[in-house]
């Protein structure tokens, strides 16, 4: 259990830093002030996954080797897990592209993904009877605590001067020429339709992330088990999937729908560090599974702890110590308390029953 905790703690730290690092990369690679690049930083994430998740495992397997072996089922499941992780990351990018805000996108993701993960794990393992009320209570506390931390984290300071300048400019602008009532109705209808369409696309993107990241852990666990608990082989498959979706897929989208972004050295470095953090987090999950951890409690703790690390990193980077809401601390306490409950009451399964020896056939004693 100590090695399990240390392994998923690595994931919590890395995935907690993933968002701020990628956010900075998006800022540096944008060509429009106040906007963030979407797909170019995602390409860098895919390149980092290729280095950490493909090149490094190949070198490890060639020079040192490890337990386990390649199987078609294990490779397909691990590739599928990588695809789920990459599609989930792309779903967040698309949710922001359609106008979603981190203030509600990320709480919905981190609140919904562990719930989906737990139910998928329970369903696949057919261990519904082993789930006790205390474990479910701990899971709910972790989710609620993570959402509370995200909602009540310190907000960026407003810019009243800039807002006042914009308002003054708007007030001084001449009124547009009057239009016919039909044109006004048509314009308002188009605007309302666009808003409703973007909102539905936001919900679809968020739902995609929740489902993909919720099923990521159980799928990866089964892929690893199918390869006899190999560590590098599943990671290699995850890296390949990320490269295909994040690099090749993003380049394909950019060729059809270009964005206001450009290649920038500083932005690329930040985005590559984000991708490396994501890949190391995936390795942490694989290690946790390798030491006996189960998706039913490893993934909820990861999804509960990563946003807390993310928020604290943001607070330290922006110097927002004096803006912390008491409810933020309450949410943090809930995450810690729920994590302890989940670990203590996590289903571990009963001891394996010894195999029954075949009954010896009765032979007639010699006369």
From TrEMBL:
Transmembrane spans: 40-62, 74-98, 104-124, 131-152, 199-216, 236-257, 269-289, 296-315, 327-346
UniProt keyword annotations, A-Z: Membrane, Transmembrane, Transmembrane helix
Superkingdom, taxonomy of origin: Bacteria
This protein's name: EamA-like transporter family protein
Organism: Posidoniimonas corsicana
